[in-house]
Specification:
- The protein is of the alpha+beta class.
- Helices cover about 45% and strands about 25% of the residues.
- The strands form three sheets. It has a four-stranded antiparallel β-sheet with strand order 3-1-2-9. It has a four-stranded antiparallel β-sheet with strand order 5-6-4-7.
- Helix 2 (about 20-40) packs antiparallel against helix 3 (about 50-60) and helix 2 crosses helix 4 (about 65-75).
- Mean pLDDT is about 90; it is low at about 1-15.
């Protein structure tokens, strides 16, 4: 059950950058709106996806007024864009796998933008599903190490039905099967409060180690992809050492 997580999503590194706060808020707001529409309820207690989106919004210090506005936008009769969930599979330098998830009101526009970004920055887009073998979709719940000891988190997560717990550095990362995500998140929430991160994520099965030049190229591609308003998350199986990250970030 326990394991060592060498992989850290690039988005975690970027999430705290204040310069991108407005764009981050816009992406979270879009997720909240879609969660209301798809879940059929503006009540977080009755809508697991909305509950998770609100947790992430609060973790990002999104104002309550902005959260309320996003919820209202998803309610019947409010009009607005009809967003569709899309996934794009591609490759970067050294054959690194890159998964891009998006919420878009124009599939052709977003696909074209993502494809051209891959091409411009040294990658190429493959068919949807091409990276199914390289990533596993899982629930990911993250708590600060200050919340509880590794042993206590491990025991609580195991009892709740988690499939893996990785405690290292300043965080506890709990992983679950997709079907167990909501129940595990809610059980841990009752015991420890809201998580700092809570989402369905793509976890790589294998990692590709990059040198400094390759890492610089890959991060540029990821930066541009994440800057696209329609793109929600970017996942990669790149393994970039802390030493290289400190040099190039």
């Amino acid at each position: 059950m326990a394991g060592h997580s060498k992989f850290k999503n690039i988005q975690h590194r970027k999430g705290a950058q204040d310069a991108k706060r407005a764009k981050i808020f816009a992406k979270i707001a879009r997720e909240i709106t879609v969660a209301v529409k798809e879940g059929g309820s503006p009540d977080a207690s009755m809508n697991p996806r909305l509950r998770g989106a609100i947790v992430n919004a609060k973790s990002a210090n999104m104002p309550n007024s902005r959260i309320d506005s996003a919820i209202k936008s998803g309610m019947p009769g409010q009009g607005g864009a009809d967003y569709k969930e899309m996934r794009y599979d591609g490759y970067g330098v050294a054959g690194v796998g890159i998964l891009v998830t998006a919420l878009t009101d124009n599939k052709n526009r977003t696909a074209s933008d993502v494809r051209s970004t891959f091409t411009k920055y040294g990658g190429n887009m493959g068919e949807t599903g091409a990276l199914d073998f390289a990533f596993e979709k899982m629930g990911v719940i993250v708590y600060s190490a200050e919340v509880a000891s590794a042993d206590d988190i491990f025991e609580a997560a195991l009892e709740a039905g988690a499939s893996d717990v990785i405690s290292e550095g300043e965080t506890h990362e709990i992983r679950t099967a997709v079907e167990d995500f909501t129940s595990v998140r809610d059980a841990l929430g009752e015991k420890y409060g809201d998580a700092s991160e809570s989402e369905l994520s793509y976890i790589p099965n294998t990692l590709t180690e990059l040198d400094e030049k390759q890492a610089t190229s890959l991060l540029k591609l990821i930066d541009v992809l994440e800057d696209n308003d329609d793109v929600q998350k970017v996942y990669t199986n790149a393994d970039i050492s802390e030493e290289i990250l400190e040099k190039i970030v």
